[in-house]
Amino acid sequence: MSRILVKLAFNYCYRPDELYHWQRYFIYGLKMLGDVSFSPTPFYWKGFLSLVDHCDICRRAWFFAGRKIKKKSHRLEKGNHVGRYTIQYKGKEKRVVIDAADGREVRSEDALEWADIYFKSNMWTGISYPDKVRPITTGDISLTPKHIEFLKSLRNREEKYDLCFISRIWAGKREDPLNMVIHQVRLFETLAGLDCRKRLVAVISKKVTVSREAKEYVDRLEKNPAIEVCYRQKSLHELWTSCAASKVVFFRAGKHLAMPGRMLEYLAMGSCVVFDAKPFSHWYRPLIEGVNYVACDAGLKSDESLPPEETYKEIAAFIDELLSDPEKIKEIKRSNAEYYDAYASPEEVARYVIDTISNS
User: Fold this and answer.
1) Cβ neighbours of residue 251 under 8 Å, at least 6 residues apart?
2) Distance of alpha carbon 142 from alpha carbon 21, whole angstroms
3) Whole-angstrom Cα distance, residue 211 to residue 266?
């Protein structure tokens, strides 16, 4: 491969720590390609890049520095999710944007105008985007190369559960934010009624705990003996080992109804994933229903309105039928491990970026 020179600009955001975390998965991938060098960053960011993954003091320093310079020109609030790269490869220099935001819309019109190629996570099927916008895999801010190797080691782990659903409950973003809470509570209550070995953990976000309207729904979960309710995130180790030890992992859309980055973790460990409904968004290599996941028909609508309450009852029958077909579960697990290695690892996502640049 020819030498690749990459420069990531930090002068379009006011939270460089957030920018780095949202771009980290792609940065890892570019570094894995081989003959890649990152040009020096400005001196006031240099050093933090190597420490931010492990040093809370550095993250806090970036946060306060960002707040101080927030009002300076070119520092855009939406820039925290949008990485602006200048990439030199095979004699070409391209201005490349990686928009890692969850929303279905292009995050930054300013960055779109600046870019030659604009890669967007969570492009929605059915929405028209400008020609320069290309799909890309959602980056997972939790993952490091060591994490990825650990997830791969969990493949084919001995099954302790039939079903696992560990999910954070938060308020939605659109007209009725309570709908997201109601929806997830209904999902937990439906799954709690299944007669199988299951682990159900509802992690309640702070914003939900202070909402009077949401409290009655949280109380319903706390009264259900089949559901563990907690107010702090489970450790990644506990989350991953529990899900890896389950025949089936249940999943729902993330914020803004996006494909959550956590899907990368389930692919890496080779999980059989059941969605509450078919995802709205797609990656550069689309996940295929029946091959990489199976989907019920009980998800929030595109405007975050609730589905009819009776549709939740169909989830139980759907999962019961899936659990009675161990060969199908085994095949989906195998397909997902293969998909991750071939298309979703940091290196392969970065290779897709470079190939797109080379062919443009």
Assistant:
1) 165, 260, 262, 263, 266, 273, 274, 275, 276, 293
2) 8
3) 31
